[in-house]
UniProtKB/TrEMBL annotation:
Residue ranges constituting the EAL domain according to the UniProt record: 24-278
Name by which UniProt lists this protein: EAL domain-containing protein
Length: 281
C-alpha cells in the first residue's frame, strides 16, 4: 500500500526519528478509530499475596489489536493517546469495561477481587474524576474498595496541590491508590506523607537483577521498610523467578505481580485462574 511504501522510503534515506514519527502519526490516526472498531480489549494480570500465597488482586492492562498494524504495545500507543487527547475516551472506556467485568464476575460467583486501573496524567487532571468513578461503581452496585487507581510519581507531582485534592477525593470515596513504577520518578518522598497513598508498586527495574545486584537489593529493601513504617503496602512488579519472590517475601513485601505467578490473561482465562485458586482468607 501507498502508506507502507512511504514508510519504506523514509527508512531508506532516514533510519532515525522521521520514520519513528511517521509511524507515530499513522498509529495515532488508526487509534482514533480503535474504540469504534472494537480493537481494544482489557487483560487482567493476577497479583499474589506473599503472606498467605493466594490471590491479592489484579491489574487491568489495555491491549490494542489493530486491523492495520497488528498488536501494538501500550508502551507505544499510550503515549500517543496521551498526546492526542484520545486517552480521555479510552481511559473512560477502560474504567467502564473493568467495572462491568467486576459486576459480571460477581454475578458468576467469583470471590470479590480488587482490580487496579492505570490512570494517565490527563485523566487524573480531570476535575470530576472521583465522581465519575464513584458513579460507575454505584451503577454496577460495586463497593469502592473493588477498584484501585494507579498513578505514577510524575502524575502525582505535576500539580501537587490539584493532585492532593483529587487523591483526597478518591480516598474519601473509599478507593485505593497505588503509586506505579515507584522509585523511577522524582524521588521527592514528602508527598507520601501528604497524599492518601495505600500501595507502592516497586518498579521492575529494581526487581530484574535482585538475585545479583546489591544496589537493587538495598533499594528494594529500603522501599519495603519505608512503606511499612508509613503504614503502606508494597507490591513488586515484574517478578519472574523464585529467587526474586523469596528475597521479597523475606523482606516483608506484601505482594508480587509477574510472569512467575501469572501472565496478563483474557477476562475468561482470568476467571478460570481465580477458580483454581485456594479460597481467599
Ligand atoms: P505498568 O502499569 O507498569 O504495567 C506493568 C507492565 O509490566 C505490563 O506491561 C505487564 O504486562 C508487564 N509485566 C508484568 N509482569 C511482567 C514480568 O514478569 N516481566 C516483564 N518483562 N513484564 C511484565 P504492558 O501491559 O505492556 O503495559 C505497559 C504500560 O502501559 C503499563 O505499565 C502502563 O503504564 C501502560 N498501560 C497499560 N494499560 C493502560 C491503561 O489502561 N491506561 C493507561 N493510562 N496506561 C496503561
Ligand atoms: Mg500499572
Ligand atoms: Mg507498573
Ligand atoms: Mg512499569
Amino acid at each position: 500500500r501507498v502508506k507502507q511504501e512511504g514508510r519504506n522510503g523514509f527508512r531508506f534515506f532516514d533510519p532515525g526519528m522521521q520514520e519513528h514519527s511517521a509511524r507515530a502519526l499513522a498509529l495515532s490516526a488508526s487509534l482514533r478509530h480503535a474504540l469504534a472498531r472494537q480493537e481494544l480489549t482489557v487483560v487482567y494480570q493476577p497479583q499474589q499475596d506473599l503472606h498467605g500465597g493466594g490471590l491479592y488482586g489484579a491489574e487491568a492492562l489495555l491491549r490494542w489489536h489493530s486491523a492495520q498494524w497488528g498488536p501494538v504495545s501500550p508502551a507505544e500507543f499510550i503515549p500517543l493517546a496521551e498526546s492526542s487527547g484520545l486517552i480521555v475516551p479510552i481511559g473512560d472506556w477502560v474504567l467502564r469495561t473493568v467495572v462491568q467485568q467486576l459486576a459480571q464476575w460477581d454475578a458468576e460467583g467469583l470471590p470479590p477481587l480488587r482490580v487496579a486501573v492505570n490512570l494517565s496524567a490527563v485523566q487524573f487532571a480531570q476535575p470530576h474524576l472521583a465522581q465519575t468513578v464513584q458513579r460507575l461503581l454505584h451503577e454496577s452496585g460495586l463497593g469502592p474498595r473493588r477498584i484501585e487507581l494507579e498513578l505514577t510519581e510524575a502524575v502525582a507531582l505535576r500539580d501537587p496541590e490539584a493532585a492532593r485534592r483529587t487523591m483526597e477525593a478518591l480516598s474519601q470515596a473509599g478507593m485505593r491508590l497505588a503509586i506505579d513504577d515507584f522509585g523511577t520518578g522524582y524521588s521527592s518522598m514528602s508527598y507520601l506523607k501528604r497524599f492518601a497513598v495505600d500501595l507502592l508498586k516497586i518498579d521492575r527495574s529494581f526487581v530484574r537483577e535482585l538475585h545479583s545486584n546489591p544496589d537493587d537489593q538495598a533499594i528494594a529493601t529500603a522501599i519495603i521498610q519505608m512503606a511499612r513504617s508509613l503504614g503502606l503496602h508494597t507490591l513488586a512488579e515484574g517478578v519472574e523467578t523464585e529467587a526474586q519472590r523469596e528475597f521479597l517475601r523475606a523482606r516483608g513485601c506484601d505482594a508480587i505481580q509477574g510472569y512467575l505467578y501469572a501472565r496478563p490473561l483474557s477476562a475468561s482465562a482470568f476467571a478460570d485462574f481465580v477458580r483454581t485458586q485456594p479460597k481467599l482468607s
